[in-house]
């Protein structure tokens, strides 16, 4: 099993969620996060004063999926979240050693 963490632009969340649901992925955790990469934030004008916005609002989607679905899920996220502009986000994939469903005690694939 793999854990996929995708950091995307907030307005793309619904599109990505719907696209993942179409391939059978329904369970996910979504968090509002802030950060920056190469774009290093931007400046804004507020009441005549210019100030630096270092951390930009993003959304982090976390999925734990079976290995067989990984490539399809990554393709869906990339295709759906891409705008072609700087700040589209990143995807991180890590190995999951063990999953336990607290309610039933089921483990690994049965718990996902």
From TrEMBL:
Q: Which InterPro entries match?
A: N-reg_PII, N-reg_PII-like_a/b, N-reg_PII/ATP_PRibTrfase_C, N-reg_PII_CS, N-reg_PII_urydylation_site
A Pfam family in this protein?
P-II
Q: Which GO terms describe its biological process?
A: regulation of nitrogen utilization
| Residue(s) carrying O-UMP-tyrosine | 51
GO MF annotations for this entry? ATP binding; enzyme regulator activity
Q: Which GO terms describe its cellular component?
A: cytosol
Note the Gene3D superfamilies from the entry: 3.30.70.120
Q: Which keywords describe this protein according to UniProt?
A: Nucleotide-binding, Phosphoprotein, Transcription, Transcription regulation
Q: Carries keyword Magnesium?
A: no
Note the PROSITE patterns from the entry.
PII_GLNB_CTER, PII_GLNB_DOM, PII_GLNB_UMP
Q: Which family does it belong to?
A: Belongs to the P(II) protein family.
Self-association and partners: Homotrimer.
Name recorded for this polypeptide: P-II family nitrogen regulator
């Amino acid at each position: 099993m793999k854990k996929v963490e995708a950091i995307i632009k907030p307005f793309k969340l619904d599109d990505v969620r719907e696209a993942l649901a179409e391939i059978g992925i329904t369970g996910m955790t979504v968090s509002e996060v802030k950060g920056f990469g190469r774009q290093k934030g931007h400046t804004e004008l507020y009441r005549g004063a210019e100030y630096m916005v270092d951390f930009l609002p993003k959304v982090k989607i976390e999925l734990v999926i079976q290995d067989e679905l990984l490539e399809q899920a990554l393709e869906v996220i990339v295709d759906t979240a891409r705008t072609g502009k700087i700040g589209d986000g990143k995807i991180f994939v890590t190995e999951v050693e063990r999953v336990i469903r607290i309610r039933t005690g089921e483990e690994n694939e049965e718990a996902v």
